[in-house]
Design goal:
The complex is a heterodimer of chains A (550) and B (49).
Chain A lengths: L4 H21 L6 H6 L6 H10 L4 H14 L5 H4 L3 H17 L5 H8 L2 H34 L3 H49 L2 H8 L23 H17 L3 H8 L4 H17 L1 H4 L1 H10 L20 H9 L4 H37 L5 H28 L3 H25 L5 H21 E3 L2 E2 L6 E3 L2 H26 L30 H18 L2
Parallel strand pairs in A: 1-3
Antiparallel strand pairs in A: 1-2
Helix pairs in contact in A: 1-9, 1-17, 3-9, 3-12, 3-13, 4-15, 6-11, 6-13, 6-22, 7-8, 8-9, 8-17, 8-18, 8-19, 8-20, 9-15, 9-17, 9-18, 10-15, 11-19, 11-21, 12-17, 13-22, 17-18, 19-20, 19-21, 20-21
Chain B lengths: L1 H12 L12 H23 L1
Helix pairs in contact in B: 1-2
The chains are: A mainly alpha (550), B mainly alpha (49).
């Protein structure tokens, strides 16, 4: 793929815009709250798009297109089962506690609700995961641009890191959030035309369906048995593992996304952020997954297009998106496509960096290292942490070049840590009796259960480092069941230890737990400002999409 | 809007420039759509302010 002047011009205009946004917003930053949490000042439509965009990294764009080519429309489960229900839940039921508690971060909520050790467990694991995630994102960007465009790995990594550093250093979280909205539109502008062109060329949905195996165009019909579908999963593993544990564990507890909702101007906006965001999210499969399906159909049509192959003889699905761009995008639109990819990397990276620097500054530095400095000091620490965070992310990117299974490792560790966390939050927010000792014990037990499940089961040659008691048909199925066991263990151990330990007095739990918190009321608000009603509409639309592609 | 203008310019100045599997002048059409969408966002912003 060769870029021309117009493509580079589009990329340069994008870089100028993101830096310009950071520059314009720098004057709004006068305190650590402004820099690290936006001081709860961001409008709803911005927070809702940022909520979606910060999660829409390039690994998702490339990965979902690849999964679409490999698994077909079943990949939409990651959205219609694995995201939408959790997004509606966090907006309706959890934001009143996150926002109402005045916690500045998710770990801080854990400290307020439980105790310091529970906060520390979450803050430290989150900080480490976030840095690695950011670094691996950069590694994937560098690798992709090296392969597809012939750019130097180092140049790609350093350029993208430098630009993210500039606009997050200048404008903090607000800059990251406003840029995420720009990046969202760019991602859609870069990917939507491809979906339209590729599907049209492949003969529309009916044309694609006529050229592909039925399992590629049906999302639920082949879920009865793992052997019936290429994902190797069945309904229970999918719904409980992905739809409940992993999905809720991510969307309801990961500070990367929750931070965007917590930056909203009001409680109502904070609740509506993930709910409004659910609407664009549920239509993303049409622009990220469907092109992958079209790629497979196109490769059977004798048009001269074929999915590139790896040396082992299997298709290289990760290159589906970029090879389609090369076939359908002339110079100009190609620049938009590449800029969209770059934007998706940068939105993910900036999201991780801003979440990291808030957790580091408030939950680790202020809590354990320097508790009573003036606010100007914490603002300075926040800025320096941005620099250090980006530098460590670059380090993680280079580490990934040495250990090529680091992505798998990170996915695994994410599952170990995220899966039990949702049980901790669920019990913390809805059961007054849950104690700090219970929460911490539950988290440790859940993480241990995840590690044990991985160590005792095998999937595609991975795992079973203790013994092989069961073999899953796919690593996806294994991950879902690891999550189920981790969550269940955390849930049960938290309850058991809580019942054996002394709870905090009710007065200390006001605004932190159901039953001791005045929940927001929506009577009198216009219909589009009522979270329950908007969520119900989103749920119905999501259900309809599931039935449409049954 | 800037993106729309750039694509529109590309579609107008080099209309024959096409990708292997595209017959249409996608730069022109995408440029028009992007320009219209950008205009819509600007109008919404003006209304809000």
């Amino acid at each position: 793929m060769v870029l021309t002047f117009i493509d580079y011009l589009i990329l340069a205009v994008y870089f100028a815009f993101v830096i310009g946004i950071g520059w314009l917003l720098r004057k709004r930053v006068t305190s650590s709250a402004d820099f690290l949490t936006s001081a709860r000042s961001v409008p709803l439509w911005i927070t809702s798009l940022a909520f979606v965009a910060t999660n829409l990294g390039a690994q998702e764009l490339i990965g979902m297109c690849a999964s679409g080519a490999k698994y077909g429309i079943m990949t939409s489960h990651f959205y219609w089962v694995g995201a939408i229900p959790a997004m509606l839940f966090v907006g309706l039921f959890m934001m009143p506690f996150y926002y109402g508690s005045k916690a500045r971060s998710v770990p801080e909520y854990l400290k307020l609700r439980y105790d310091e050790k529970t906060r520390a467990f979450n803050a430290i694991s989150f900080a480490v995961m976030t840095l690695f995630s950011s670094g691996i994102s950069m590694y994937a960007l560098g690798l992709l641009f090296q392969l597809v465009l012939g750019w130097s790995f180092t140049a790609s990594v350093l350029l993208s890191a430098a630009i993210v550093l500039v606009y997050t250093y200048l404008g903090g979280l607000t800059s990251a959030i406003y840029n995420e909205v720009l990046q969202f539109f760019l991602i859609v502008a870069g990917a939507a035309p491809l979906a339209i062109l590729a599907v049209n060329k492949a003969g529309g949905w009916q044309g694609m369906a006529s050229r592909l195996e039925p399992v590629m165009t049906r999302s639920w019909a082949h879920m009865g048995d793992p052997s019936q579908n290429p994902m190797g999963v069945e309904v229970i593993g999918l719904v409980m593992g992905l739809g409940f544990v992993l999905s809720f564990g991510y969307w309801c507890t990961n500070y990367l996304v929750v931070q965007r909702a917590m930056a909203a101007k009001s409680m109502s906006d904070a609740r509506l952020t993930p709910i409004v965001g659910a609407f664009p999210k549920m239509f993303l499969p049409f622009i990220v997954i469907v092109p992958g399906i079209a790629a497979v159909a196109l490769s059977k049509m004798g048009l001269g297009y074929a999915l590139p192959m790896k040396e082992s003889g299997v298709p290289n699905y990760d290159l589906a998106l970029t090879t389609l761009m090369a076939q359908f995008y002339p110079s100009g639109l190609l620049g938009v496509g590449i800029t969209g990819l770059m934007a998706s990397f940068m939105s993910g990276m900036a999201g991780n960096v801003t979440a990291f620097n808030t957790v580091w500054t408030y939950d680790i530095y202020q809590s354990y290292i320097n508790k009573s400095a003036p606010d100007s000091h914490y603002l300075w620490v926040g800025r320096m942490t941005t620099v250090v965070g980006v530098a460590l992310s670059i380090g993680a990117a280079y580490l990934a070049t040495l250990y090529n299974n680091i992505m798998d490792l990170l996915q695994l560790v994410f599952g170990f840590v995220n899966a039990p966390l949702f049980a901790t939050f669920l019990l913390g927010m809805f059961w007054k009796r849950a104690t700090g000792h219970g929460a911490f014990s539950g988290l440790v037990a859940g993480t241990a259960a995840a590690a044990l499940t991985h160590g005792l089961t095998l999937a595609e040659g991975k795992g079973a480092w203790i013994a092989n008691l069961h073999e899953f048909p796919s690593t996806m199925a294994q991950n879902f069941w690891i999550a189920i066991w981790a969550w269940t263990s955390c849930f049960l151990v938290t309850i058991l230890v809580s019942l054996l330990t002394k709870p905090r007095p009710a007065e200390e739990l006001r605004s932190l737990v159901y039953g001791l918190t005045e929940l927001p009321k929506d009577e009198g608000a216009p219909w589009h400002r009522r979270p329950a009603l908007v969520a119900a509409i989103a749920a119905v639309v999501c259900l309809m999409l599931n039935f449409l592609f049954w | 809007m800037i993106l729309g203008l750039l694509l529109l310019a590309a579609g107008t100045i080099i209309p024959g420039h096409k990708a292997p599997l595209t017959e249409a002048n996608v730069n022109l059409y995408t440029g028009i759509v992007t320009l219209l969408f950008g205009g819509f966002l600007l109008w919404m912003a003006r209304r809000a302010s």
